[in-house]
Amino acid sequence: MAQPKGLVDDFGILMECQKILPDDRHRLQLLESIAELENNEAHATRSFPKTRLHKITGIKEAIYRADIDKMTGWRLHLQYSRIDQRLHLKDVVPGQQHDSVIKAIKSKQSRYEK
Question: Is 69 a member of any domain?
């Protein structure tokens, strides 16, 4: 079994997800997404079939997106920390706002490392 990579949640993103995700199906999908993001083997092979983890283009900082649910558009924003070499949860983006990714990042700019 692969060792967990470990996510850092400094901003209470998981608690926010618990409150705003529309139903239990989405909450279960969140758990599946977190499990994939914490899997070292997925990082070693760079294979993320559930979350489709990828770098956001158009932003200077290395900010990544991961799907909670691809069909409804719920996403997580994450950033690798240069300090502790871990993945930090930065934001949850509701389905209706997932297309305006740069606007969502700029609205919470203070959360992201430069």
Answer: yes
